[in-house]
């Protein structure tokens, strides 16, 4: 018997199912649930008598066994009703049993509701939930925004470097042109003085 859990827009969602079983005399009825770590299993139950003429409130035992070494996770002894909620500390198959081992009553039954809560890691990229997909999309959007900001800053830095280099090249070219003009004027002046004819009276 499996409980189903679905997740929509939230990290946990529960689904409930009601059952009624007849307990054998000096016997037990056991059920299994496969849980993942941090999943929750909640069971509420009430013992009753199927005999129409009975007016007694019957009692019984309820035990939840862990997946490892059948350790008792939770137990109720000689109770007419109860409610328990346990969180799975590890992955595995958990067993819960309704016991009638101390009684030979053949008409004892138990009505119980089982509620499972599936734990969903919203940061898990393999999560198939809508909320998980929205969070994954938001994370990707933030990463894209950060990458764009980095590109803008990098472009600004490179542009400033290029403009600085252009300014240096411009001023160096102006300096070279000035040196060439000055050298040309000096050569013209020197050659003009060199070829001047000096006349003495």
UniProtKB/TrEMBL annotation:
InterPro entries from the xrefs?
Emp24-like, GOLD_dom, GOLD_dom_sf
UniProt cross-references to SMART domains, sorted A to Z: EMP24_GP25L (SM01190)
Alphabetical list of SUPFAM superfamilies matching this protein: Supernatant protein factor (SPF), C-terminal domain
**Which regions span the lipid bilayer?**
none
A family per Pfam: EMP24_GP25L
Extract the signal peptide range. 1-18
Q: Which domain of life is it from?
A: Eukaryota
- Give the membrane topology: Single-pass membrane protein; Single-pass type I membrane protein
Q: Does the keyword Metal-binding apply?
A: no
Name the keywords, alphabetized: ER-Golgi transport, Membrane, Signal, Transmembrane, Transmembrane helix, Transport
**Is Transport tagged as a keyword?**
yes
Instruction: Provide the GOLD domain boundaries.
Output: 28-116
Q: Name one GO biological process term.
A: endoplasmic reticulum to Golgi vesicle-mediated transport
Q: Where does it live in the cell?
A: Endomembrane system; Membrane
The entry's cellular-component GO terms read: cytoplasm; endomembrane system; membrane
Which family does the record assign? Belongs to the EMP24/GP25L family.
Q: This chain belongs to which protein, by name?
A: LAMI_0D07712g1_1
Q: Which organism is it from?
A: Lachancea mirantina
């Amino acid at each position: 018997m499996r409980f189903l859990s679905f997740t929509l827009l939230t990290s946990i969602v529960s689904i409930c199912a009601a059952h009624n079983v007849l307990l054998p005399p000096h016997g037990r009825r056991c059920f299994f649930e496969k849980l993942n770590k941090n999943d929750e299993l909640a069971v509420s139950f009430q013992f009753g008598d199927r005999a129409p003429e009975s007016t007694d409130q019957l009692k019984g035992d309820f035990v939840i066994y862990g997946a490892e070494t059948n350790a008792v996770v939770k137990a109720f002894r000689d109770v007419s009703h109860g409610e328990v909620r346990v969180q799975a500390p590890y992955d595995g198959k958990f067993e819960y049993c309704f016991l009638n081992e101390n009684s030979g009553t053949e008409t004892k039954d138990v009505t119980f509701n089982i509620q499972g809560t599936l734990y969903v890691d919203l940061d898990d990229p393999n999560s198939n939930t809508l909320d998980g997909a929205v969070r994954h999309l938001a994370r990707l959007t933030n990463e894209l925004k950060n990458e764009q900001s980095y590109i803008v800053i990098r472009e600004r830095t490179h542009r400033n470097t290029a403009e600085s280099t252009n300014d240096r090249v411009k001023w160096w070219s102006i300096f070279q042109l000035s040196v060439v003009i000055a050298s040309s004027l000096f050569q013209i002046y020197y050659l003009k003085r060199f070829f001047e004819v000096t006349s003495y009276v």
